């Protein structure tokens, strides 16, 4: 690709005695106005073109310092303040220190010295842009211009150097050079000379008001037009068009801030270099791990699969040649705009290739006439990952191009599901239609073009950042400046549109009535928390069980839904069990293996990182173990949850604990499905079926609940790791029918009465 295009600018500044005059009724001198405009110009250059080379020449100075004067060629009272180089803060500070002199100014001398300075700097090097900016009040009479001007115009035109003049108190119209100036006097004597000069070499003359308006306008950073890829567009095996690919849209971010050491000596740049040190998370001493002892790994479920550098290189390497291969042409309506998944690029014919331009023009026009879009395979450089792209035909400024927009693969799509919304009434639809029409940013008949053009809509964050940087650069102790009114205006709605839309606002408010619900009132009164009993009743409704007052503490409730996470049953037994369970967890955690302990510490909470599935809140404990990232506790969690289910069934008095066991089984099935442990779950479920169908009436009743919930085997439809066909899973409950009747005779009642007093001791 071509190198970056260079740019050279020389600024010519008037500091003659006439610059001490007052500028109109502003209370400032012409030189102060000129200095303010010049500083705005240089500040703008530092932001939008930081690599542009800038030189400064001052004419009408109290001293003489330039190359032509040193060669005894005259040109007195002209000083070369700065030779062309990349702009910096010292350049602006040097301009800020300038003062007008008592000498007469000769603008032509300053221009000749500036042109000589530019010529010597450029030499034989290729500069894409050359320009000269003259800041003056034009008060001096220019004599002898007819002897020098023709040769100067010829060389500047040949070198394609434009001239821009910022005239203090120049007339505001280029067609009326004899009109009144901003200060109320006639046009400056040198204004006709400058206008004639600019007409011959190309450029522009700006009065001070126009210059300030232009210099204070927002600008964007200049970016060189360089191609990101040069490739052949293969339409058919017999038709290939050489093309260049350019970035059309590139997000502009805030500049990266450099870190510097405050303790560094003043004669050094103080740049800070970052060194990364890696150590083991479970090493209390924090010892560094050598590079040869480090390895990369990919996650496979909860497991880590180590990959060597050679493996990684082999996986990432590909034998893809650079290409832009057309696959198919489809109707434009089949490519919805919402699926475009990246930045926009522009595909143009190879420059200076007439045959490529003709072929591209014919292809683009054919696509436009048929309203079709090309789908292509794009590899922007050798061995890069291939992309699927859409090529949309466009003709801009008489040039035919293709706009390239990346298309997503199947893995890039996200499945989104939203609850259905109530159907709006005709009045509501009419009100919203009127609001949208009223708030339109497109100008109506006689109102001009659109109010919002992305090409002229500047990022307020970047502009505000630039404003703050300028203030702090000139004075590090200065406070942040007030927000620029233009930036503030961009952050607010258009006032006339908002005023015009007030009736539409009122209509929408009347059409959509907002009523505070009881849930909202309760949330406001109690901070959004529910009582434990409310959560328990909701859970009971979910499992279809009629709740008795003494059974409230049997319902498993997430601590996030309960008040303080405690199970305050009517009999008080819930608190006892919670405390006993916490004690059990503490004992087990104290004796757990280092891996489980590390996992618990990584989770950062007593319950969230627990390595134990207890009976107080087994579902939450089970899910917490599955969520541990730095250790694989999946198998342990599955085995413990299986044991909890068996324990609840064995120790249940009738069907009192069956609801909790059923919730545990449901959670176990979901966890095994997400963790690809279908084989183990199916083993557990088959064993549980054998236990229940061969047990008493209570267990058979529990199995009927399992069947009603549909907690069957995990099949291949649920997870690819299963060996069970969907038909087998559907027949799982049909293989053996069990009675749903639960024994309730005198013997059962006597057994219940006999064991009632031991209930607390049996349930932990």
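^ Assign residues to that structure.
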């Amino acid at each position: 690709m071509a190198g970056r295009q260079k740019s050279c600018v020389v600024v010519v500044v008037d500091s003659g005695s006439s610059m001490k005059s007052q500028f109109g009724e502003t209370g400032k001198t012409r030189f102060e106005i000129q200095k303010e405009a010049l500083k705005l110009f240089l500040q703008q250059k530092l932001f939008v073109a930081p690599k542009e080379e800038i030189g400064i020449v001052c004419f009408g100075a109290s001293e003489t310092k330039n190359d032509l004067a040193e060669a005894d060629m005259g040109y007195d009272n002209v000083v070369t303040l700065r030779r062309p180089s990349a702009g910096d803060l010292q350049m602006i500070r040097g301009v800020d220190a300038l003062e007008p002199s008592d000498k007469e100014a000769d603008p032509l001398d300053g221009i000749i010295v500036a042109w000589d300075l530019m010529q010597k700097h450029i030499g034989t090097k290729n500069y894409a842009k050359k320009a000269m900016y003259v800041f003056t009040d034009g008060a001096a009479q220019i004599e002898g211009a007819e002897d020098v001007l023709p040769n100067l115009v010829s060389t500047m035109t040949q070198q394609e150097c434009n001239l821009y003049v910022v005239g203090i108190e120049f007339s505001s119209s280029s067609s009326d050079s004899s009109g009144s100036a901003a200060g109320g006097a006639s046009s400056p004597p040198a204004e006709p000379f400058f206008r004639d000069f600019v007409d011959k070499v190309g450029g522009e003359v700006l009065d001070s008001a126009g210059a300030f308006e232009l210099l204070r306008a927002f600008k964007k950073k200049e970016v060189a037009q360089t191609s990101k890829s040069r490739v052949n567009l293969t339409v058919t095996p017999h038709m290939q068009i050489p093309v260049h690919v350019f970035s059309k849209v590139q997000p502009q971010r805030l500049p990266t801030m450099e870190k510097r050491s405050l303790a560094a000596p003043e004669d050094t740049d103080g740049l800070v270099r970052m060194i990364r040190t890696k150590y083991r998370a479970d090493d209390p001493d924090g010892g560094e791990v050598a590079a040869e002892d480090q390895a990369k790994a990919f996650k496979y479920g909860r497991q880590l699969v180590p990959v060597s550098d050679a493996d990684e290189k082999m996986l990432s390497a590909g034998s893809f040649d650079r290409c832009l291969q057309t696959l198919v042409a489809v109707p434009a309506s089949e490519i919805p705009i919402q699926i475009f998944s990246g930045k926009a690029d522009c595909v143009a014919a190879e420059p200076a290739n007439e045959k490529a331009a003709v072929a591209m023009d014919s292809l683009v026009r054919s696509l436009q006439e048929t309203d079709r879009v090309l789908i292509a395979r794009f590899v922007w450089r050798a061995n890069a990952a291939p992309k699927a792209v859409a090529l949309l035909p466009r003709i801009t400024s008489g040039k035919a191009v293709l706009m390239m927009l990346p298309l997503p693969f199947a893995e890039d799509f996200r499945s989104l599901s939203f609850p259905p919304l109530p159907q709006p009434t005709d009045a509501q639809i009419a009100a919203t239609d009127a609001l949208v029409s009223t708030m339109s940013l497109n100008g109506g008949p006689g109102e001009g073009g659109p109010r919002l053009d992305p090409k002229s809509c500047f990022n307020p964050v970047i502009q505000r950042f630039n404003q703050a940087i300028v203030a702090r650069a000139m004075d590090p102790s200065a406070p942040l400046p007030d927000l620029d009114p233009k930036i503030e205006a961009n952050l607010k709605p258009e006032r006339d549109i908002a005023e015009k839309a007030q009736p539409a606002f009122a209509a929408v408010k009347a059409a959509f009535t907002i009523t505070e619900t009881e849930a909202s009132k309760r949330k406001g009164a109690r901070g959004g928390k529910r009582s434990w009993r409310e959560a328990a009743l909701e859970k009971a409704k979910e499992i279809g069980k009629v709740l008795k007052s003494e059974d409230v503490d049997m319902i498993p409730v997430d601590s996030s839904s309960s008040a303080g996470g405690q199970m305050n049953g009517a009999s008080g037994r819930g608190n006892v069990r919670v405390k006993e369970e916490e004690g059990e967890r503490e004992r087990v955690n104290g004796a757990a293996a280092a891996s489980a302990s590390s996992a618990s510490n990584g989770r950062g909470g007593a319950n969230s990182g627990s390595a134990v599935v207890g009976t107080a809140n087994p579902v939450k404990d089970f899910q917490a173990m599955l969520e541990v990232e730095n250790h694989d506790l999946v198998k342990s969690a599955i085995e413990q949850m299986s044991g909890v289910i068996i324990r609840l069934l064995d120790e249940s008095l009738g069907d009192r604990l069956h609801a909790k066991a059923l919730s545990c089984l449901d959670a176990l099935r979901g966890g095994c499905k997400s963790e690809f442990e279908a084989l183990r779950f199916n083993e557990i479920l088959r064993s549980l079926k054998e236990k229940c169908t061969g047990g008493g009436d209570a267990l058979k009743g529990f199995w009927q609940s399992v069947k009603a919930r549909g907690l069957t085997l995990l099949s291949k439809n649920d997870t690819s790791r299963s060996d069970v066909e969907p038909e087998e899973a559907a027949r799982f409950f049909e293989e053996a029918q069990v009675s749903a009747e639960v024994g309730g005779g005198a013997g059962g009642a006597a057994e219940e009465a006999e064991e009632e007093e031991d209930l607390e001791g049996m349930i932990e």
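The domain at 7-215 is CATH 3.40.50.410 (Rossmann fold).
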